[in-house]
Design goal:
This protein is an alpha+beta fold. It has helices at 9-13, 22-44, and strands at residues 48-59, 62-71, 78-85, 91-99, 105-113, 120-128. The longest helix is centred in the first third of the chain and has 23 residues, at 22-44.
């Protein structure tokens, strides 16, 4: 230590500064944040969107369901699976309803036959044919 410099153990043993994690963290945040924004926007605007409007029991073994289907491509044929459930939430009726190509927004009313007394109706899914 005759040179007048102060002795530093970090230099002697090769200890690196503690801030080396910042660059990989920023890169990871930018890539992850970009993917997160893309995924949110992509799944927030699906090609086929369905919405239950109402349902009513029309007979002892059937239920009527009113629903709407909105699709981005009006020339696409859509098949919706509609279900009827009993008081214990067991599926007692199911029907596939085909919606032909035409306008992008359709409102349908369909009767679902059931094997026992239905209580509720739902749209299981809508898919492109």
């Amino acid at each position: 230590m005759q040179s007048g410099e102060e002795f530093d153990y970090n230099d002697r043993y090769g200890v690196l500064p503690a801030k080396r994690w910042i660059t990989p963290a920023i890169v990871f945040a930018l890539i992850g944040g970009g993917w997160f924004i893309w995924a949110g926007l992509h799944h927030a605007n699906p090609a086929i969107r369905s919405e239950l409007i109402s349902f009513s029991v029309t007979a002892e073994r059937e239920i009527s369901i009113r629903y709407s289907v909105n699709r981005t491509d009006p020339m696409q044929v859509v098949i919706c699976t509609l279900t009827a459930s009993d008081q214990d939430k067991n599926v007692v009726g199911q029907i596939d309803q085909t919606i032909a190509a035409g306008s992008s927004y359709n409102e349908q009313t369909t009767v679902i036959p059931a094997r026992t007394a239905p209580v509720t109706a739902a749209i299981a899914r809508c898919r492109a044919e």
